[in-house]
Design goal:
The chain has 411 residues and is of the alpha/beta class. It has 15 helices and 18 strands. An eight-stranded parallel beta sheet has the order 2-3-1-4-11-5-10-9, sandwiched between helices. Strands 13-14-12-15-18-17-16 form a seven-stranded mixed beta sheet, sandwiched between helices. Strands 6-7-8 form a three-stranded antiparallel beta sheet, with no helix packed on it.
């Protein structure tokens, strides 16, 4: 694949982030494709887009492993002529932030990378080197209590330094006058979208190779700067049936599912054995569970599966993420085999990846954003039939946000 000089290639460390980023460009009429795996990206020889967003699935890898994945992918893009890179990071700065930014710099043999981690629409911003979520330093927020990998630091410098020894400098308007003689990550602080747009403007006015990093907030600002007008309309298959699958352990998401339960929505919690034991998938209990969900979709037009039910920190020591993802993907696949014309809403990046990698083929076309951080994409099952996918990371939204998403399909 040969890239044009003005193509933008984006690497995200999980699938929800990939789709959340891709839709920012699609909203501005920019031809965009999202790839759920690196393999799907590398095998794409047929179509050309202006923005390629690739899920690297590196958030939960060890730093050295994440570095290698990013270095290899970025080296491929560099070899094929790519000059504009955006390393998409998690808005709460989970994952191997420093290692992945460093890998991109090394692959492109560059001394300069610009990092603007703010996401104003989700109330996430950086002030005096400290990253905040909903006004709380990130390490003290719900993300500092993550049962698998809590965010340990609120300082951007410390977060990067956890997995990298690259120099960190806080950016100023005079950054162009200060040539980097060694690899340097420039931190840009922003509290609103206008500040992010101005940051993009300054950076994109430079000549040659441009390496940037940030979350969907920066992607939105970049898309706005590069935008080509109104997005071309992509027709989605009509459906009024919704299968919502939640695999996030984030406290906010757990509260949203419990809210649905209180409001009378058909919520079913899977226990630990149901999620992780392969024998369950072949059991009569599992078949009955699937049949019941299909009946709910036919009669009530909605079914909610909460894969995190009864799942707490003590369980996480004996659970492999991939086991959970593969198990729920198998259940969802069997539901879709029996229920056609159903939209799929998924909360949690690991769960989304498990489902998509198991039953979806090729790239995914971002269509629209129904609320901040909630993109809608058009995908295709392996048999070629279309599927509407609504995705969202854990930890986003108000208590009633899941209900609002469901009701959008009931109009």
């Amino acid at each position: 694949m040969i890239f044009q000089a003005r193509d933008t290639i984006i690497f995200a460390d999980d699938l929800t982030g990939t789709l959340d980023t891709a839709v920012q460009f699609a909203k501005h009429g920019i031809a965009t494709i999202a790839f759920p795996t690196a393999r799907a990206f590398l095998e794409n020889e047929k179509y050309h887009y202006k923005v390629y967003v690739v899920n690297t699935s590196t958030r939960h890898l060890q730093p050295k492993e994440a570095y290698k994945v990013l270095f290899d992918l970025a080296s491929y893009v560099f070899k094929e002529g790519g000059q504009r890179i955006l390393k998409k990071t998690d808005s709460a700065l989970r994952g191997n932030v420093g290692a992945e930014l460093t890998a991109v710099m090394h692959a492109f043999q560059s001394h300069t990378l610009h990092f603007a981690p703010a996401y104003p629409d989700m109330n996430r911003y950086t002030v005096q080197g400290i990253h905040y979520c909903d006004g709380i330093p990130v390490a003290e927020s719900v993300f500092g209590k993550d049962p698998f990998e809590p965010v340990k630091y609120s300082s951007i410098r410390d977060i990067i330094g956890e997995t990298s020894d690259v120099k960190v400098r806080f950016a100023s308007e005079k950054w162009k006058e200060q040539e980097d003689k060694e690899p340097t990550i420039h931190i840009w602080e922003a509290k609103d979208n206008e500040e992010l747009k101005q940051i993009c403007k300054q950076i994109l006015e430079t000549e040659g190779m441009i390496l940037q990093a940030g979350c969907a907030g920066l992607a939105h600002a970049l898309a706005d700067y590069l935008g080509e007008g109104a997005a071309a309309e992509t027709k989605l298959p009509h459906t009024d049936k919704v299968l919502l699958v939640s695999g996030s352990l984030n406290l906010k998401t757990l509260q949203q599912i419990e809210y649905l339960n209180r409001k009378g929505f058909p919520v079913q919690y899977l226990d630990w054995d149901s999620q992780c034991q392969k024998s369950y998938l072949e059991s009569d209990f599992c078949q009955n569970f699937i049949d019941d969900r299909c009946k709910e979709l036919q009669t009530e037009h909605v079914s909610v599966i909460a894969t995190a039910g009864g799942f707490r920190r003590k369980d996480c020591e004996r659970v492999e993420r991939n086991d959970v993802g593969e198990a729920i993907a198998s259940i969802v696949e069997k539901i879709f085999d029996k229920t056609l014309g159903c939209a799929m809403v998924v909360f949690g990046g690991d769960t989304l990846f498990g489902i998509v990698s198991g039953i979806i083929q090729g790239g995914m076309v971002p269509v629209k954003e129904i609320m901040p951080g909630v993109p809608v994409s058009l995908a295709h099952f392996k048999n070629g039939s279309p599927c509407v996918v609504v995705s969202r990371s854990g930890g986003f939204g108000s208590e009633d946000s899941a209900e609002k998403i469901i009701k959008l399909f009931k109009k």
